[in-house]
Amino acid sequence: MNDLLSLIKKDLTSLIEKLFNEDVIKNNISNKLTIDYNSKSKQGDLSSNLLFILKGQILNKSFNINEYVENYLSNLEYIETIDIHKAGFVNIVLTKDYISNYLNKIYILENIYTKTNKQKINLEFVSANPTGPIHIAHLRGAVLGDVLSSILERIGHEVTREYYVNDAGSQITILGNSLFKRYQELCGKNIQFLDGEYPGNYLIEIAEEIKNSDNEKWLSVKDSNEVQSYFEQYAVKYLIKKIKDDLLLLNIKFDQFTLESEIVKNNLIDKVFSILKDKNLIYEGILEKPLTVDTEDWEPRKQLLFRSTTFSDDNDRAFQKSNGEWTYFANDAAYHFDKYKRGYDKLINIWGADHIGYIKRMVSIVDVFSNKKEYLKVIVCQIVRLFKDNQLLKISKREGNFVTLQEIYKQVGKDPLRYFMISTKNETPMDFYMDKVVEKNKDNPVFYCQYAYARASSVINNAKKLPNIDISKISFTDFDNLSISKFEWEIILKLISWPYILQDAASTMQPHKLTNYLEDLCSSFHAFWNKGKDDSSLRMLDENNITSTISRIIWIQSFRNILKEVFTIIDISFPENM
RNA sequence: GCGCCCGUAGCUCAGUGGAUAGAGCAACCGCCUUCUAAGCGGUAGGUCAAAUGUUCGAAUCAUUUCGGGCGCGCCA
User: Is A427's CB less than 7 Å from nucleic acid strand B?
Assistant: First the structure.
C-alpha cells in the first residue's frame, strides 16, 4: 500500500486498539477497517468505514463514540477537517501541506513506491504449441502476461517471463509428417491431408526452404525415423523463430524458453512420480468413460492415476498411459517441478479459457511437491471475438483459419492492440472491433489518453516561451497551495493515488485497473483544460499571475510523469505532439 | 449431467460488503478571436437476470432457478 493510506490506516488502527484496551469496545475489529480514496462522494479526500464497524461493538451504550472519534482525528496533524456522515462514514479532508508533500514525490519522481518484500516470480504465458503461427487466441494472454510482469517489476519484484515449448508428443509427430507431405508435394508428388494434420499454408514456406537447400534428397532416405526427426526438428525450430518474431511486433520478449523435450530428457518425471508414490497419491486404476466419448471408441484400461479427487477435482487424472508413456499432464507436472526447483517464490501461469478444466489438477500437484498452498496461481483469460465492419470474424478450428497476430498487427498497430487487450477484465469475454480501435477520437481511449499527454506537453512547451518564467529553475519550493483551484486539487489527489492503483493492480493481478485509472485521470485533465475557456483565471498559463502559473506547471509536470509511468508499463507510445 | 466463468443503461464495459450503481458510444441540446474542438458541458436512459437468505448495510456473500460462454480421454 501507498505510504499515505498505510500511514493513516496505522493511526486509525491504533485508535481501535486504544478503544479495545480501555474496554470501550468488545473486540479488536481493526481487521475490518477500510480506508480509501474518496471517488464516490465529493465529501472529502478519503473515507473510512470506522464508525460502521465500531457501532455494534460499544459496551457502554451512553458512550459518545462520534465525539470521541472526532476529537481523536482532529488532533492528527495531516487532517484538515473531518465530517462524520450520518450513515457512518468518516470523511477526511487532508491538509494542503500534506497532499503537496506527496505531490512533490511525483514531481521529482522519487520514492513514489513503497518498498515491497522482493519476490522472485516466474510468469509463464503464451506457451502456444510450435505447430503454427501466433494468432488471435494467444494474443490476449500474451499482452496480459507481459503487462502483468511489468506491473510486478515496477513494485519491486523480480520477474522471469517464461515460455514453455511443447516440442514433444504426438502433435509434433503430426507436424513433422505434415511438413514432409508439403515437401513431397513440392517434389511433384500427390499428397492428401488427413483429419487432424496441419494443412496450413505456412508449412509450404518451410518445405520450400528445405527443398531449396536439399533438393529431393529426403525422398530417397530409407530410414524413416531419420526423415521424421529431421522434419520435426526443422519445423519446430522454424516455428519457434516465427513465434518470437511475431511477438516482437508487440515488443513482447521472454527471458526463458523451456523445452518439453529437455524436461523429458532430464528424467524429472521420475522424481515427481516418486514424490507422489511416497505420499500415496498415485495408484493403478481404471477411469470411467467420459461423457464426451462415444461408447464404441471407449475401452477401459488399467493405468497409473493421480488422486486428483483428494483435492476436490471431479476425477482422478491419468499420469501414465496404458502403453507405458507418460501423459502430457505428467510432463507438465515435471515442468512445474523444474520451475519450483529453480527457487521461485511464486509461479503464475496465464491460460486460455479452454484450459479451465486443467487448473485443479495442476494446482493440486504443485501444492503436493512444493508443500505450499497456492504456490501456483493460474490466471484464465476469456476468449476474444474479432469484429471487422461490425461483422464477427468466424473461426473454424478444423480448418485452422485463425486470424494471425501478424494480420491484426498490420491493420491495427502495436498501441491499440496492447491497450485493448488489457483494458477488459481477464475473466470477461472480449469483443475487439478492428475498425474502432484505430479511430482518432474520444471513442478510442488510446488516443484520448495520448492526446491528454500531448496537450500537457504542449502546455509545458508554451511555458518555456514565457518571458518572465524560467521553467528550468522551478522547484517544488515554489509550489503555492493557495493558488490551486478546488478542481485541480481533485486531479492532484488522483495523481497521488497512483501508487495505490498500481499496488492494487499487482495484488489482484488485474492490469485493466491501469487503463481505468488512466481514462479517469485524463478525463479530469481534458475537463480542466476546457474550464480555462469559460474562466480565464483557470487557464494553465497566465503571464499576469506567475504564482499560479508556476504551481500549475508543477502539477502538470507531475501529471505527465504519471502518464509516462502508466504508458511505459503498458508499453505504448506517448507522443508529445499529435 | 458435472466443473469454472459471465449476466449491470439501446451497445461495449467498470464497480465485487458501504453513501443517490458509474464511464464511453449511440440519442437530444449547447461550447471554438485566446494553452491542440482528436476536446468539454448538459439532458435523457437502470427491477444490477430472478427468488430467498446472511447483517447496521448486498449489484457484490450463500442457496436455488433461468440464460450465455468455455471445458469435461490415455489428445496437447
Answer: yes
Which nucleotide across the nucleic acid strands is nearest to A359, CA versus C1'? B4
Summarize pLDDT for A171-224 with one digit per residue, the tens: 999 999 999 999 999 999 999 998 888 988 899 999 999 999 999 999 999 999
Distances (CA, A) of A216 to A84, A183, A300, A457, A466: 86, 9, 45, 62, 75
Per-residue pLDDT tens digits for A514-531: 999 999 999 999 999 999
| Domain membership of residue A463 as a residue range | 445-570
As for how many domains chain A has, the answer is 4
Helices (H) and strands (E) in chain A, counts: 19, 15
Using C1' positions and the CA of A260, the closest nucleotide is: B76
Those residues whose C-beta lies under 8 Å from the C-beta of residue A326, and which sit 6 or more positions away, are A264, A269, A319, A320
A391: in domain: no
Spacing of A428 CA from B66 C1' in Å: 20
**Spatial distance from the CA of A248 to the C1' of B25 (Å):** 32
Quote the DSSP letter at residue A290.
P
Interatomic separation, CA of residue A110 and C1' of nucleotide B64, rounded (Å): 54
* Whether residues A562 and A484 fall in one domain: yes
Q: State whether the beta carbon of A27 lies below 7 angstroms from any atom of strand B.
A: no
Q: Which of residues 107-146 of A touch strand B (CB under 7 A)?
A: 129
A511 assigned to some structural domain: yes
DSSP assignment letter at A466: -
Give the model's confidence band at A1: pLDDT under 50 very low, under 70 low, under 90 confident, else very high. very low
ipTM comes to: 0.95
Query: Are residues A186 and A140 part of one domain?
Result: no
> A553 lies in a domain?
yes
Whether CB of A279 is under 7 Å from strand B: the answer is no
